[in-house]
Write a structure and sequence with these properties.
The chain has a single domain, classed as Jelly Rolls, CATH 2.60.120. The chain is an alpha+beta fold and about 150 residues long. It contains 3 helices and 9 strands. The two termini are about 30 Å apart. About 5% of the residues have low confidence.
Length: about 150
Protein backbone atom coordinates (compact mmCIF):
# COMPACT_ATOMS: atom_id res chain seq x y z
CA UNK A 1 0.00 0.00 0.00
CA UNK A 2 1.52 3.32 -1.08
CA UNK A 3 0.84 6.54 0.81
CA UNK A 4 0.74 10.16 -0.27
CA UNK A 5 0.26 12.84 2.37
CA UNK A 6 -1.59 16.04 1.55
CA UNK A 7 0.21 19.35 2.00
CA UNK A 8 3.62 20.67 0.99
CA UNK A 9 5.56 19.64 4.08
CA UNK A 10 5.39 16.75 6.49
CA UNK A 11 2.20 16.94 8.57
CA UNK A 12 2.48 18.82 11.82
CA UNK A 13 1.50 17.06 15.01
CA UNK A 14 -2.10 17.45 16.24
CA UNK A 15 -3.47 19.03 13.06
CA UNK A 16 -6.01 17.76 10.57
CA UNK A 17 -4.35 15.54 7.98
CA UNK A 18 -5.28 14.09 4.59
CA UNK A 19 -3.73 10.89 3.25
CA UNK A 20 -4.14 9.19 -0.12
CA UNK A 21 -3.30 5.49 -0.14
CA UNK A 22 -3.09 3.09 -3.04
CA UNK A 23 -4.36 -0.45 -2.56
CA UNK A 24 -3.51 -3.19 -5.02
CA UNK A 25 -5.92 -6.08 -5.20
CA UNK A 26 -5.15 -9.41 -6.86
CA UNK A 27 -8.55 -11.11 -7.09
CA UNK A 28 -12.03 -10.18 -8.31
CA UNK A 29 -13.37 -10.35 -4.76
CA UNK A 30 -10.93 -9.67 -1.95
CA UNK A 31 -11.27 -8.46 1.63
CA UNK A 32 -7.88 -6.94 2.40
CA UNK A 33 -6.98 -6.17 6.02
CA UNK A 34 -5.72 -2.57 6.16
CA UNK A 35 -5.95 -2.14 9.94
CA UNK A 36 -2.22 -1.80 10.57
CA UNK A 37 -1.76 0.79 7.81
CA UNK A 38 -4.59 2.97 9.14
CA UNK A 39 -3.40 2.55 12.75
CA UNK A 40 0.11 3.64 11.70
CA UNK A 41 -1.27 6.82 10.12
CA UNK A 42 -3.11 7.63 13.35
CA UNK A 43 -0.09 6.92 15.55
CA UNK A 44 2.22 9.05 13.38
CA UNK A 45 -0.28 11.91 13.23
CA UNK A 46 0.24 13.01 16.82
CA UNK A 47 -3.53 13.43 17.18
CA UNK A 48 -4.53 12.46 20.72
CA UNK A 49 -8.30 12.76 20.29
CA UNK A 50 -10.41 13.02 17.16
CA UNK A 51 -11.83 11.08 14.23
CA UNK A 52 -10.44 8.97 11.42
CA UNK A 53 -12.54 9.13 8.25
CA UNK A 54 -11.91 6.46 5.61
CA UNK A 55 -13.39 6.85 2.13
CA UNK A 56 -13.17 4.74 -1.05
CA UNK A 57 -13.83 6.81 -4.20
CA UNK A 58 -14.92 3.79 -6.24
CA UNK A 59 -18.38 2.32 -6.96
CA UNK A 60 -17.30 -1.33 -6.84
CA UNK A 61 -15.21 -1.24 -3.65
CA UNK A 62 -16.08 -0.63 0.00
CA UNK A 63 -14.82 -0.35 3.58
CA UNK A 64 -15.85 -2.87 6.23
CA UNK A 65 -15.20 -3.08 9.96
CA UNK A 66 -15.59 -6.58 11.33
CA UNK A 67 -13.77 -9.41 13.08
CA UNK A 68 -10.21 -9.92 11.93
CA UNK A 69 -9.23 -12.82 14.19
CA UNK A 70 -10.63 -15.76 12.22
CA UNK A 71 -9.75 -15.58 8.51
CA UNK A 72 -12.66 -17.94 7.78
CA UNK A 73 -15.05 -15.07 8.42
CA UNK A 74 -13.78 -13.25 5.32
CA UNK A 75 -14.80 -16.25 3.19
CA UNK A 76 -18.17 -16.38 4.99
CA UNK A 77 -18.76 -12.67 4.21
CA UNK A 78 -17.79 -13.22 0.56
CA UNK A 79 -20.18 -16.20 0.30
CA UNK A 80 -23.00 -14.27 2.00
CA UNK A 81 -22.61 -11.34 -0.40
CA UNK A 82 -22.42 -13.73 -3.36
CA UNK A 83 -25.87 -15.05 -2.36
CA UNK A 84 -27.28 -11.52 -1.99
CA UNK A 85 -25.80 -10.27 -5.27
CA UNK A 86 -24.73 -13.13 -7.52
CA UNK A 87 -22.93 -12.64 -10.81
CA UNK A 88 -25.81 -12.62 -13.29
CA UNK A 89 -26.61 -11.48 -16.83
CA UNK A 90 -30.14 -10.52 -15.71
CA UNK A 91 -29.31 -7.12 -14.20
CA UNK A 92 -30.44 -3.87 -15.83
CA UNK A 93 -26.86 -2.61 -15.50
CA UNK A 94 -25.41 -5.46 -17.52
CA UNK A 95 -21.75 -4.70 -18.08
CA UNK A 96 -20.58 -7.73 -16.10
CA UNK A 97 -20.01 -6.04 -12.76
CA UNK A 98 -23.44 -5.11 -11.43
CA UNK A 99 -22.97 -7.57 -8.57
CA UNK A 100 -19.87 -5.59 -7.55
CA UNK A 101 -21.86 -2.34 -7.45
CA UNK A 102 -24.56 -3.97 -5.32
CA UNK A 103 -22.04 -5.46 -2.87
CA UNK A 104 -20.30 -2.10 -2.48
CA UNK A 105 -23.67 -0.42 -1.91
CA UNK A 106 -24.51 -2.92 0.85
CA UNK A 107 -21.16 -2.51 2.68
CA UNK A 108 -20.66 1.23 2.10
CA UNK A 109 -17.82 3.37 0.82
CA UNK A 110 -16.91 5.14 4.07
CA UNK A 111 -16.43 4.60 7.77
CA UNK A 112 -15.58 6.89 10.68
CA UNK A 113 -13.61 5.69 13.68
CA UNK A 114 -12.62 7.44 16.87
CA UNK A 115 -9.10 8.36 17.94
CA UNK A 116 -8.47 8.30 21.69
CA UNK A 117 -5.15 8.59 23.53
CA UNK A 118 -3.36 8.75 20.17
CA UNK A 119 -4.72 5.37 19.07
CA UNK A 120 -7.38 4.16 16.67
CA UNK A 121 -10.40 2.91 18.63
CA UNK A 122 -11.46 -0.58 17.58
CA UNK A 123 -13.04 -3.41 19.50
CA UNK A 124 -10.87 -6.31 20.64
CA UNK A 125 -11.52 -8.42 17.54
CA UNK A 126 -12.27 -5.67 15.03
CA UNK A 127 -10.28 -4.87 11.92
CA UNK A 128 -10.64 -2.61 8.90
CA UNK A 129 -11.05 -4.21 5.49
CA UNK A 130 -10.75 -2.76 2.03
CA UNK A 131 -13.37 -4.73 0.08
CA UNK A 132 -12.68 -5.29 -3.59
CA UNK A 133 -15.60 -6.56 -5.64
CA UNK A 134 -14.38 -5.95 -9.22
CA UNK A 135 -10.66 -6.67 -9.22
CA UNK A 136 -7.91 -7.14 -9.64
CA UNK A 137 -7.24 -3.41 -9.67
CA UNK A 138 -5.12 -0.56 -8.40
CA UNK A 139 -7.44 1.38 -6.06
CA UNK A 140 -7.39 4.66 -4.15
CA UNK A 141 -8.28 5.13 -0.53
CA UNK A 142 -8.62 8.46 1.26
CA UNK A 143 -8.04 8.93 4.98
CA UNK A 144 -8.75 12.16 6.84
CA UNK A 145 -7.61 12.52 10.44
CA UNK A 146 -9.39 15.27 12.37
CA UNK A 147 -8.27 16.49 15.76
CA UNK A 148 -10.86 17.50 18.35
Amino acid sequence: MLEQTGGAAAPEKSRNQHHALQVETRMRVELKDITSQIARLVERSGIESGQCHIFVPHTTAAILINENYDPGLRKDIENFLKKLAPVSPDYQHNDGNCDAHLKAAIIGVSKTLLIEHGQLVLGRWQGIYFCEFDGPRQRNLRVKLVAD
